[in-house]
Design brief:
CATH topology: Rossmann fold
Strand content: 15-25%
CATH superfamily: Response regulator
Number of helices: 6
Largest sheet: 5 strands, parallel
Strand order of the largest sheet: 2-1-3-4-5
Shape: globular
Helix content: 40-55%
Structural class: alpha/beta
Distance between the termini: 8 Å
CATH class: Alpha Beta
Order of helices and strands: EHEHHEHEHEH
Number of strands: 5
Oligomer: single chain
Length: 131
């Protein structure tokens, strides 16, 4: 199984910790920060990563955060490609859930605040099993 990880700059530390926890469970996680170049090649690499992924994992960004629009776009593009899209809210900010774009409201979104990363990773991997 291959997961494409999408997040804003503000959530980078959480995203990297979660990626490591998921990878410990034997799942391959594609992190655009580590895997792709810049410029035109970057856009093509993102598209390729989305196409090759089985699951898109969106760390739900705070509205207006640097990179938030990119993260939402990647999740939407993955959905358009027929991929399973899962969302994770890293902090106890219910506003993030209220700010989801309407086309993402049907996705499974997990509140990860105040939960150990290993437990979050196990729940997500379990949710990915049908993918």
């Amino acid at each position: 199984m291959k997961v494409f990880l999408s997040y804003s700059h503000a959530d980078q530390a959480f995203a990297h910790e979660l990626r490591n926890s998921i990878e410990k469970l034997g799942v391959t996680v594609e992190d655009p920060d580590n895997a792709f170049g810049s410029g035109t090649a970057w856009a093509e690499s993102i598209r390729g990563g989305l196409e090759q992924a089985d699951v898109i994992l969106l760390i739900v960004p705070e509205a207006g955060a640097k990179g938030a629009n990119n993260a939402f776009f990647e999740a939407g593009a993955g959905h358009a490609l027929g991929k399973l899209v899962l969302g994770v809210v890293p902090e106890p900010r219910n506003a993030r859930l209220r700010e989801l774009p309407a086309d993402l409201l049907g996705f499974a979104v997990m509140d990860a605040s105040n939960k150990p990363l290993d437990a979050i990773a196990k729940t997500l991997v379990h949710a990915m099993e049908p993918a």
